[in-house]
Amino acid sequence: MDSISLLVGPAPNASRALNQDDFDTRYNFAKYRKKKTNTELVKQFAIGDNWILYQSPNSWTQILPITGWINKYHVKDTLGKDILGALYLSLLLLPQAIGFGVVINDVSAAVYSLFIPQIIYAFFGSAQHSSLGALSFTSIMIYCSIEYSSSHLSSISLCCAFIQLIQFLLPLEFIFSYISTSALSGFSVGLFIRTVFRFLPQFLVFRGHDCKSTTAHISRSADTILIIATVVAALVFLIFKWRLSRLLQSKIGFSAPHEFFVLLTVTLIIFFFQPDVAAQSTSRIDLSIPKIGLWAFPSWSTFVDSFAISIYAMTSHMQITKSIAEEKMYKVHRKQELFCFSIISLLSSLFGLLPPSSSYGSSQVNIESSKFSLVANVLSLIPTMLMVHFGAPLFNSLPICAIGIMIITSYNGWFSDLKSIREIFYSSPWDAAIAMAALVSAVVFPNVCIGFIFMLFCSVFAVSLKVQFPRMEVLAKLSDSHFSEENRYEGDCLDTPLRIIRLSGPLLSVNCESVRAELFKQAVVVKGLIGIGIGTRTASLRSQCPSAESVTARESVNLSANITIIQECDVSVALPPSEDTPAIVRFLVLSMNGVTGIDKDMLTCLSQIYGDLSSENIKILMAGVPAFVRDSMELLGFYNTVPRTQFYPNVQEALLAARNTVLPFHMSVSMNGYRDVIALSCAQSNADLNRQPSPEAV
């Protein structure tokens, strides 16, 4: 048989496409209430899900977490371990507090800042382990605020308490979401570099302008004993950091408090071998119990610095606390942590002490404190107080150079942060750029608090750049239920002249021109497609529907075919179009499941595009439009220009609607004696074909 005529079209009992209105009616769609009262708007902003953590019946347990875990505390099994842990934690935390005090030139304030956080956090902290009061990168931030903004510790703590309380009361936790892990890592590496610069004079010449406020006589003493003691201390710190700490951890389950013993040994050597130096001290450390003082009204610069200190302290605290909580299988709540930190900061401001902060990264303090409960943190205050009281004379002989080496070697996270920054250069250039901007801002700005604000603005700007431009991808049909990127997959050729464009991200006014350009570009492409094709589920046709006369198909079952598409009018011998011949309708299907927002300007742009393309017989079908986007369309009158019938719940329904619009059609398949040459036509009948010589055999 020379030709076979087939009438292809939807089956008589095939269901019609389900548009969005029919879909909403069938599944009882709840329409958006257009107006809200002022009270409802205030409640939605100020309350919303902000207080969902403190709803009954667990409100009292959440506001005072100690009531939840103290009943589960096993005294016989755990108390003995916590008593030993208290002594161990005191030996770890005291050198850390001394290092914090050396950085900010106030050892007394740093040492006494160990006491309030341990007590308050045991009652109000949502975590079951704590390293508050240990040395952290906030030390260099507080030092810069005191040095460049003339801030006082009481003012910094008071501002931190106010900021943390406001973040607890209002839904302002979104600020922390702009500080990504890469940004925090980059800024922390920059703070580590600033800390090295802070002690660089002592490392080079055993003296520096900052040493005079604590132990100026030691910094000027460059005798042999001090040099040898400092070098030996540096070697011991490095050996413990890179070798012995891991060895002891694997052998006995914990690492030795080497920082305490090394500092104690070096201090005793200086105290006994240089008693004249200790006696001639002109600047002694006052370790008397601090008294309650009046608050000084903070300046704007102090408030800005405190904002940076508070945000960084909470972000780094949550990072390490959540990692420990995941390992120990309990939850940590940032809102409760903000409430706890605000109480600690407020009480610290009364005594001129430091705002709370945790040790950074996988430091020894963080690792060892996770092995004990908060009871051990509270009990650790007893040996700490005894050591402070009886060891007060030794504080005036503190070796600043040895303490500087201890501070630098105690930061464990900076090296892993550098490796993570190097890795994200290959995976995410955006995150790498943010990390490098954070690192540079911490190093370049004299006041690192201002550098943190600059880093925060860079993060917000980078996020706005990433999210304000939508992704527009052309999809290919892989199967009846699967669609994916056309430039990555090979799928079926559609039997309807259309293109599927997936839009994801926010559709804002800034994106109007890019969306318009992409849709008109796809309109040009869809014009070049054949009027009506043949649907196939075999592997012989590619997802890119042909626009030329022939396309080479893939081999299937060892059969290489050359498929020739013959349109209504041959391109080589074009006939004048008949007035009675209806124009072929083509389609652009917009898959909008990933749209996260839309504004009025974009709706106006889409309305204009719809009108322009309709005049060229190209219809726009919108599939999977989220409900909140349709709410905006209804409120802004979008349906006045784009009818509701153009909306469909998914891409499949939109494709079915497009197919039903252009089908049924008459398709002629001619066989010329060669099994690998097939001529397909979308003409009305065989008589309407423009007779041409049969294609040559392949």
Tell me the span between the first and last alpha carbons: 20 Å
| Total beta strands | 11
Q: Any low-confidence stretches, pLDDT <50, length ≥5? A: 1-13, 206-222, 279-283, 533-575, 665-698
How many helical elements?
28
Shape: elongated
Folded structure, characterized:
Keywords: Membrane, Transmembrane, Transmembrane helix. The chain crosses the membrane at residues 83-103, 109-125, 155-176, 183-201, 221-240, 252-273, 293-315, 336-354, 397-414, 434-463. InterPro entries: SLC26A/SulP_dom, SLC26A/SulP_fam, STAS_dom, STAS_dom_sf. Pfam families: STAS (PF01740), Sulfate_transp (PF00916). It is built from 28 helices and eleven strands. The protein is of the alpha/beta class and 698 residues long. Among the domains are: 75-180 and 257-411, no CATH class; 471-528 and 581-662, STAS domain (Transcription Regulator spoIIAA), CATH 3.30.750. Strands 3-2-4-7-8-9 form a six-stranded mixed sheet, with helices on both faces. Strand 2 (471-477) and strand 3 form a beta hairpin. Helix 13 runs parallel beside helix 21. The longest helix is centred in the N-terminal third of the chain and has 30 residues, at 75-104.
